[in-house]
Design a protein that fits this description.
Number of strands: 8
Shape: globular
Structural class: alpha/beta
CATH class of the largest domain: Alpha Beta
Number of domains: 2
Distance between the termini: 38 Å
Largest sheet: 4 strands, parallel
CATH topology of the largest domain: Rossmann fold
Radius of gyration: 19 Å
CATH architecture of the largest domain: 3-Layer(aba) Sandwich
Helix content: 40-55%
Length: 305
């Protein structure tokens, strides 16, 4: 698919998810600021519900499918792709969309059951004629890295960034057409377009530990601590993630992680839109960088703020 921005402005049905509108509002702020800087129109799906973060299916696969079929149908009603900036939401909603599209061919009775439940709630039916797309790959596929590079006004050449993809983005769906699920380069290619030096380390494609945090907190924090320490050892100035849940576990809980592993870390964690928007000249204040638990002061000082 050619970059649409060459002929028209990009427009998406924006699914912000729960965390970016609650515990980490700076992530929603930065996505909106980035879209404005790139002249991308986001139509927020204000009637959308939580994707369930993978927990709905523990009780009922039908529940997860129906809730997220509704989320997708809201985007379909606008005749727009559903865009999310959350790896977890992408993995859950994208997988539901993938499964339901397969059912349209193999098990239409199941689709009818899902749509019957939606109808009872006066919701529009799922039709399977849109797509679910993470912001990272919308920028790469639709906008184009060359176009982003042209709009860089503040090259981040002094910065070394370690990506943290999160597991849902890479491996929750059967098909991953935009990246290698085990050796991805999407974020690293974005980094290069901004002038950033990518830092490679083993943990960048692994789980942050968030799914364990509610029932195996110590193990969750040990997992997060291992990844953060590895990124530090490899020379990273910060971690950059496309997932608000990973952001929660790696940034908001980093002081607790430090207590569990008995070691000081202090590594800033940025959401992907924050990093890109900084390079485009958006101010740190507009991106909510002062809201982080782990101070971003060191990163900003490297960039001359």
């Amino acid at each position: 698919m050619l970059s649409q921005n060459l002929t028209q402005n990009l427009k998406y049905a924006y699914y912000p998810g729960c965390v970016a509108q609650g515990a980490c509002k700076e992530l929603h702020m930065s996505t909106v600021a980035l879209a404005k800087a790139l002249n991308i129109e986001l139509v927020e799906l204000k009637k959308a519900s939580c994707c369930g973060s993978g927990t709905f299916k523990e009780d009922s696969q039908l529940l997860e499918d129906t809730v997220n079929a509704r989320n997708i149908a809201l985007a379909e009603e606008l005749n727009l792709p559903l865009l999310t900036h959350c790896s977890t939401c992408q993995g859950v909603i994208g997988h539901v969309d993938e499964r339901l599209k397969q059912c349209q061919q193999t098990d239409p009775t199941y689709i009818n059951k899902v749509n019957s439940l939606l109808e009872k709630q006066n919701c529009v039916p799922y039709r399977g004629n849109s797509e679910v797309l993470h912001l990272l790959y919308a920028l790469i596929r639709d906008y184009g890295l060359e176009e982003i590079q042209k709009r860089v006004t503040r090259p981040l050449t002094k910065l070394k960034c370690a990506s943290f993809y999160g597991c849902y983005l890479l491996r929750a769906q059967e098909s991953m057409p935009y990246d290698n699920p085990f050796k991805p380069e999407g974020m690293e290619n974005v980094f290069r377009a901004l002038g950033v030096e990518p830092i490679y380390y083993k943990g960048r494609t692994q789980c942050c530990g968030w799914p364990l945090s509610s029932y195996a907190t110590t193990d969750s924090f040990k997992m997060a601590g291992k990844h953060i320490q590895e990124a530090i050892d490899c020379g990273a100035d910060c971690i950059v993630t496309p997932c608000p849940l990973c952001h929660l576990n790696l940034d908001s809980r980093q002081p607790e992680v430090e207590k569990v592993i008995g070691q000081k870390l202090g590594l800033p964690v940025l959401h992907l839109p924050q990093l890109i928007a900084l390079a485009l000249g958006v101010s740190p204040k507009e991106l909510g960088l002062e809201r982080h638990v782990v101070s971003t002061k060191g990163v900003l000082e490297k960039l001359g703020f």
